[in-house]
Amino acid sequence: MTSLSLPRPRQYRRTPVEIDVTVNGVLNMIDGTISDLSEGGARIDGASMPVRSRCEIHYGGQVVYAVVMWAEFDRMGVRFPYELTSGPLYNALERARGPAAAPVQVFRTSRPSGFGRRGLR
């Protein structure tokens, strides 16, 4: 009997960004652009390293450690072993997400009295 596993939803919300970074591998440093960022990982365009390799992402004086999860010729996806919670890269993520709009609540006391949207009596 074969057991089928259902795909798990992503733990973090991905946000499209455009952040120029430097990726430091074991043997080389590559300039790239983060195009998709979350607290748990990123997609970096313009840089590629072998899958399962470890690297450092340099941005704004901060170093973020990452593990390459998938790679193509000109881009790669990395996972952060330590969740982003502070620093310049986290601040850029928060700026890209923008202010969260609070849901508007309409209470009975603030509604116009009468019938319909025009308040006809």
UniProtKB/TrEMBL annotation:
Q: Name one Pfam family in it.
A: PilZ
Annotated PilZ domain residues: 10-86
Q: Which InterPro entries match?
A: PilZ_domain
The protein depicted here goes by the name PilZ domain-containing protein
Query: What species is this protein from?
Result: Sphingopyxis jiangsuensis
